[in-house]
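User: What would this chain look like folded?
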Amino acid sequence: MTSRSLSIHVKTRLELVLERPMDALFHLGAHPDRLDRLCGSEIITGTQTDGSLLDVHSSAFHDLFGNPVIRARLLPGTTIMKYEFRGTVSSASAPVDDLPFTTVSDLPSHVLQYLQPSRYVDSDRLGALAFKIIGDEARAGRQVQRLFEWVTEHVRYEPGSSVLPLSASEIIDQRVGVCRDLAHALIGLLRAISLPARYVVGYAQELEPQDIHAWVEVFLDDAWYEFDPSFRKLNIGRAGLVHGRDAADVAIMDQFGPLPLLSKQSVQVS
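Assistant: Here's the prediction, encoded as structure tokens.
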């Protein structure tokens, strides 16, 4: 495996305007397991309409997947949440073609949750298609490559083409989607042939328009490997922060209560 470090600077700003108080959970920091690939400083702040600062550290906890989550009670008026990371991200790559298939009985227990269908990944409906795509290929690495190539060739990446998340099977039928959708499609096909796959949220350089990005990690030969079906360029900074079974697990914000009057987000990655 080869690895090199790439400089990256990420700035995210989320503005919320509320008429009434609202409780919220925010995924705004890096998973502890991902800090071995991120070297630099994270700054997370929250400012309420009266100028008070949210206590983003003592209110934090870790979800079922180990991701850091900020819990906050937001006041009526305007709340500004900011995330900034400046540093380097290691870009690791390795050929996966000859990596063997690991039977479910031999997989570590912590990856088994990434084999099952989830809210937006209806992998139980994709078995026939997935096995047709891989044909008689027995090596897991080449199975992954065939499924990855199929998604990139048959499902068009088009920013802004969808707003509400669709299931993996719906995206495959629709043949177009945003990064979230292509990631769900690939995860669904991978899980359908018993390869653990998870949904990753983070940031990527050179992405246009700039936004939060999503891609896939598949578990092969006791390690996680990245595959990005919507943005295939390899030699860029790609900073993964959090992961889960699908987009429902790692929304940037989960809100509880009345909808904001305004919700606006900006992202800068360089």
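The two ends are 26 Å apart (CA to CA). If you want, I can go into more detail on any region.
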